[in-house]
């Protein structure tokens, strides 16, 4: 959920809660004020009734009010607590029951006491409260609607600079010449964010360029003496005066130098992949490339007496031919090197995936560790970077790579 949606939902709920609580308080306040007004009117009517009766010294039942209902009941009580209360009463003229507000008190006439109950209608007050409540609810709904529209559409423009900044961050490539610029904004926080990101991108780019330059220089400086050593060894091997022991030692040195050269090349390639420095792509017929690879590794497979079975469907991909060549070289070399004499290799290609299976040891490998750098078995003569390169190349093009083991066959499956 977007931040603007969180803000809209939170402000909507808080505003709704505040307005509902306020409306309830407002309703009870209006009801209380209306009740107090009715009680004051009742008190006035009660006072008028008492003055009328005492001044006329007549029958209290003759007292009548225009819109009120007065009942006098003779009582022997000497004291009666005056009280106001809600009730319903039969309106004499209309002969219908209505909600009312009443007051009850004791009136003395000569030597007699009367309990007087005066009731007045509260229908008008009730209708007024209902009208006020309807208006309040309508205003509440209108306010919430305006608030929702304002937050969702009008205020959404405030987040546009942030969204543009986020888009530019996603498109930022440390190897590009163009640096992060950020979109100008009137909001101080967004301006500070753009400035902080700009400074951070400059530091990262400078560190990257420094590291890139160091890596390239180090790689170049390493390759030069390795090439010299290789040349000297080639010359030395051709010396006919060397005995078998000396030739064996020179061969070991030659192998170590070649391994160091391959290791240097692999590490440099990994650095380029991780920093997305290889961007060239072309259309590749993968089934044709696989057929060529089988011919290329045919001699190595024959040396171990391996049987190759394959089922290739036409598949076209867009990638760097250089990287695909490295990927297939590592997968084919892995399938041959870790196979058993007289074993099998099966290569399958369909529009969705490429799988390379080979017979090998009767135990499954760790599907996570085999793709880690420098992870290799005790008997392996490689540098431990082959499968790491395979994984990084797959990630570079968005492919999935998975190791599987089934009935003595080890498989690497690439999902397009």
UniProtKB/TrEMBL annotation:
The keyword Transmembrane applies. It catalyses: ATP + protein L-histidine = ADP + protein N-phospho-L-histidine. Keywords: Kinase, Membrane, Phosphoprotein, Transferase, Transmembrane, Transmembrane helix. Residues 217-416 form the Histidine kinase domain. Its EC number is 2.7.13.3. One of its GO terms (cellular component) is plasma membrane. PANTHER family: SENSOR HISTIDINE KINASE TRCS (PTHR45436:SF5), SENSOR HISTIDINE KINASE YKOH (PTHR45436). This is histidine kinase. The chain crosses the membrane at residues 12-33, 128-149. It comes from the Bacteria. One of its GO terms (molecular function) is phosphorelay sensor kinase activity. Gene3D superfamilies: 1.10.287.130, Histidine kinase-like ATPase, C-terminal domain. It holds the Pfam family HisKA.
């Amino acid at each position: 959920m977007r931040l603007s949606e969180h803000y809209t939902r939170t402000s909507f709920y808080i505003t709704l809660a505040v307005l509902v609580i306020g409306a309830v308080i407002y309703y009870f306040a209006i009801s209380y004020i209306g009740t107090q007004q009715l009680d004051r009117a009742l008190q006035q009517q009660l006072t008028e009734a008492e003055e009328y009766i005492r001044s006329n010294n007549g029958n209290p039942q003759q007292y009548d009010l225009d819109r009120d209902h007065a009942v006098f009941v003779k009582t022997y009580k000497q004291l009666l607590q005056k009280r106001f209360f809600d009730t319903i009463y039969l309106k004499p003229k209309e002969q219908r029951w209505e909600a009312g507000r009443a007051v009850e008190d004791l009136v003395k006439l000569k030597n007699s006491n009367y309990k007087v109950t005066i009731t007045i209608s509260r229908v008008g007050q009730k209708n007024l409260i209902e009208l006020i409540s309807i208006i309040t609810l309508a205003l509440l709904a209108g306010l919430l609607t305006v608030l929702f529209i304002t937050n969702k559409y009008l205020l959404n423009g405030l987040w546009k600079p942030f969204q543009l900044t986020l888009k530019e961050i996603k498109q930022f490539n440390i190897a590009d010449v163009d640096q992060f610029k950020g979109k100008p904004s009137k909001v101080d926080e967004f301006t500070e964010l753009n400035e902080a990101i700009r400074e951070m991108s400059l530091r990262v780019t400078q560190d990257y360029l420094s590291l890139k330059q160091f890596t390239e220089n180090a790689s170049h400086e390493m390759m030069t003496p390795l090439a010299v050593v290789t040349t000297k060894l080639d010359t030395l091997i051709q010396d006919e005066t060397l005995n078998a022991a000396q030739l064996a030692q020179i061969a070991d040195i030659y192998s170590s130098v070649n391994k160091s050269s391959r290791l240097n090349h692999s590490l440099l390639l990994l650095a380029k992949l991780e920093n997305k420095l290889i961007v060239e792509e072309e259309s590749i017929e993968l089934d044709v490339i696989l057929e060529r690879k089988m011919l290329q590794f045919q001699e190595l497979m024959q040396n171990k007496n391996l049987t190759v079975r394959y089922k290739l469907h036409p598949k076209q991909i867009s990638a760097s031919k250089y990287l695909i060549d490295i990927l297939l070289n590592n997968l084919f070399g892995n399938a041959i090197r870790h196979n058993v004499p007289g074993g099998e290799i099966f290569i399958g290609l369909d529009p969705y995936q490429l799988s390379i299976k080979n017979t090998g040891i009767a135990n499954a490998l760790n599907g996570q560790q085999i793709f880690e750098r420098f992870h290799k078995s005790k008997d392996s003569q490689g540098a431990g970077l082959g499968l790491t390169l395979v994984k990084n190349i797959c990630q570079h093009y968005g492919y999935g790579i998975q190791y599987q083991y089934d009935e003595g066959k080890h498989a690497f499956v690439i999902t397009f």
